[in-house]
Amino acid sequence: MALVAGSFVAIIAMAALSIDVGTLYQAKAEAQRAADAAALAGARTISISGITGDPTNGASDGSWGDICGSDTSPASVAAKNAGQQNLISGVVAPTINVYYGAGSTAATNLDCRNAGPNFAVNPVVTVTVQSANLPIFFARIFSLFGSNFSATTVGAKASAEVYNPSQSGVLASMIPVQPRCVKPLIVANKDPGNGGPLVDATGTIANPGISQLGSGVIGETFTIRADCWSTFTDCNPPDLAGGGHMIDNPPTAPTTTLLDYIPAFVNTNSGAVPACSSATVFQQAIGGCDQTTVYSCGVALATEADMTINPGGGSGTGDTATAAQCLTHSTGGADSLAGGTTPTFPFQIQAGAGNLLKNVGVNTGDTITSSSSIVTLPIGYFSSTGLAFGQNQPFVTIAGYLQVFVQSIDPPTGNMVVTVLNVAGCGNAVTSGTAYVTGTSPVPVRLITSP
Question: Which end of the chain has less neighbouring CB within 10 Å, N or C?
Fold first, then answer.
């Protein structure tokens, strides 16, 4: 009995120690989750700011500094907030540091303006998390520690990359992107504000820069409209012979505030579709997530348009307007950019009254980092003989993607006012068997931390 009683003491001691050691390992895993979330949040903020669309002037025109130039910049603050939402042993991590770098090199700069010119090619955000004085439970009964806390410190490190292939040729061979949930509105390869194409034949952004800080495509606000005759039930472009429409490469925009689009061919149902945009598969692809339709960026004439519908309508019941209103919750109050149709830089997204995050404590006007009003649009063009009047499903070449914020929707015409948040090109030398970088954004954000 004495032996059994003595062994119980040892067994209980080992069990208590194993439980507390287990909690320390759990704390290590929680610290890693906090670091992962923080790195992704910081990278996401960079992605929607358009830094990768400003590869030449960012260090000099102030745009980089406005986003990630200090410990209190938007990217750093977003990273720290995300990290602090992931508790470590039930408490907020007391030490979170955010660093910036370029490409695959180590991110060691607290100010991204010191990260070098390639920072705008593939920005990298690295976050370190540390938490000390972790709580103990059973072990303190045996006086293994002098208090309710151990002297152990857990730490974790994570790096996230913002990948824009438009300038990746500067560092290495270009790997094109192939985002998911792309909206089936193929816009012309034309920059309304600056003239010329949005992306050139190599995939490079033709007019890089932030428009609010001087010039460039990032931050431009214009109207996109269906390039169709409104009197037709299908999409017959009004001027197939030349000037002003999708047949040109690049087309000549009618004004500096308009960009034409034609509908893409969608032949299957989409996922996560709200009831207010489920009438047709085209509506579903706008209001929900179309994971099936592949927009093969850079592959000549690999994507189909669909001229059998007129997405703009003309009576307020067009597919584009109906589905876009549903997507952005505009009837209840859509999200907005600070500054409205003349947004201020750095871009700040403000929650609208219809934002579903209000169910978890987000109030109208709060700054948020994600919004259903941010959409991806393919940039396309036809060959000179690739479109004929009455042709149902002509093929189009996808030259890149626009990431835009939907500012407003005009139901009678189906027109949408949008602001450009980022641009990605893919070049004209991509083959159908090329491996793509995938994601939900044309400028994907991904963890690159080694296991």
Answer: C
Shared domain check, 226 and 119: no
Same domain as 184, residue 331? yes
**Are residues 415 and 222 in contact, defined by beta-carbon separation less than 8 angstroms?**
no
For residue 312, with 0-12 CB atoms within 10 Å meaning exposed, 13-18 middle and 19 or more buried, which class applies? Answer: buried
Instruction: Return the pLDDT at 450.
Output: 65
Predicted structure pTM score:
0.85
pLDDT digits (tens, 9 = 90+) for 146-202: 555 555 678 889 999 988 888 665 545 677 888 889 999 999 888 988 888 898 888
d(CA 242, CA 175): 33
pLDDT given for residue 250 in this prediction: 45
Pick from 185, 244, 237: which is nearest to 380 by CA?
185
Assess whether 406 and 277 both reside in one domain: yes
Strand, coil or helix: what is 20?
helix
Q: How far apart are CA 306 and CA 53, in angstroms?
A: 30
Choose the weakest-confidence range: 145-149, 320-324, 381-385, 434-438.
Answer: 145-149
**Distance (Å, rounded) from C-alpha 43 to C-alpha 37?**
10
* Residue whose C-alpha is closest to residue 174's, from 105, 121, 106: 121
- Number of structural domains (the chain) is 2
Outline where DSSP puts E strands in 244-372: 258-263, 303-304, 336-337, 349-350, 367-368
Q: What is the rounded average pLDDT for all residues in the chain?
A: 81
Domain that holds residue 366: 174-438
Helix ranges restricted to H, 50-165: 58-61, 63-68, 74-84
Helix (H/G/I), strand (E/B), else coil: 289:
strand
- Please name which of 122, 184, 196, 185 lies closest in space to residue 159, comparing C-alpha atoms: 122
